[in-house]
């Protein structure tokens, strides 16, 4: 099984968006319907969701007008209103506004081996199982000669990815007491601007600090020589460096001491600490040159062990079910990703999709 791939030929934002929306109309529309169901299950009605979508679009237009134009283009191609595509991009913000619980259990590992050797990265991406068909792989050229490749959800401008400047990002959700219903810049747009503009960790941190947000996330930026987990919340932005051994691990709780005071996710989902400990206990495997070995080092199932590899509990409502939908490693020297559809327990050398 592989994820669908789309390669943009248009370079102007609105035209690029329209091209994507036209070719991915069915999947984008399905994503919107899936998120509408998720928001409804969490207690938000259509009028409230529309208001948040319109507000997210306004915030995007103020902070990154070209990305707002691209959203409008996607909507035109998909036969939707711009606010509807903004809803897909702002799903993290809307879930924070609803104060939804249990949203995501991703785990990320980055190891910098030094001596000119490339970073060894891997992450699991967990999300609600009814949205398992949401992801796609998208290649675009935001400016001449600068290529971005991203694993994202159809209609969302970016998530995990790499660029031809030698920078890549991983992506995990966080929750903080300062998260609010006053929607800010969608964190998925921050990820996109980092991929579009940044060639260094310092530049990635600068992009993150420039956005006023209403929901929390961590974007782990990595280059051949450096890495940082950029924790983003309405209360501030912190950049967590690797430890002295070059190891940087992140799950779904804040590591920065000041931001951790407002931690929300771990109070409701304390397994994030257990997963983080599992990663620490398996650093040797996570440092392996071989991506399959790194993915297998992540393998662990709850309830007896850390639930790094998640499977849905169908006795629960859809907003309380999640699944490891992808396992992803970055190949920075090649400017590409290797992506497996599913969790570490299904990984084999032949299941990787190179993009």
Describe what you observe in this structure:
Keywords: Acyltransferase, Transferase. With 355 residues, this protein is an alpha+beta fold. Helix content is 36%, strand content 23%. The chain has two domains: 5-98, no CATH class; 107-354, Penicillin V Acylase, Chain A (4-Layer Sandwich), CATH 3.60.60.10. The protein is built from 13 helices and 14 strands. A hairpin with a 4-residue loop joins strand 12 (323-331) and strand 13 (336-341). The protein is globular, with a radius of gyration of 18 Å.
Keywords:
alpha+beta, C45 family autoproteolytic acyltransferase/hydrolase, globular, C45_proenzyme-like, transferase, Peptidase_C45_hydrolase, about 350 residues, Penicillin V Acylase, Chain A, 2 domains, Peptidase_C45, 14 strands, six-stranded antiparallel sheet, about 25% strand
Rg result: 18 Å
Which term fits the overall shape? globular
Total strand segments: 14
Model regions low in confidence, pLDDT < 50 over at least 5 residues: none
Biggest pleated sheet: 8 strands, mixed
Helix content: 25-40%
Work out the count of structural domains: 2
The helix-and-strand class reads alpha+beta
CATH topology of the largest domain: the name is Penicillin V Acylase, Chain A
Instruction: Give me the strand/helix succession.
Output: EHHHHHHEEEEEEHHEEEEHHHHHEEE
Strand content: 15-25%
CATH architecture of the largest domain: 4-Layer Sandwich
CATH classification, class level of the largest domain: Alpha Beta
> What average pLDDT do the residues reach?
95
Distance between the termini: 14 Å
Strand arrangement in the largest pleated sheet: 1-4-5-6-7-8-9-10
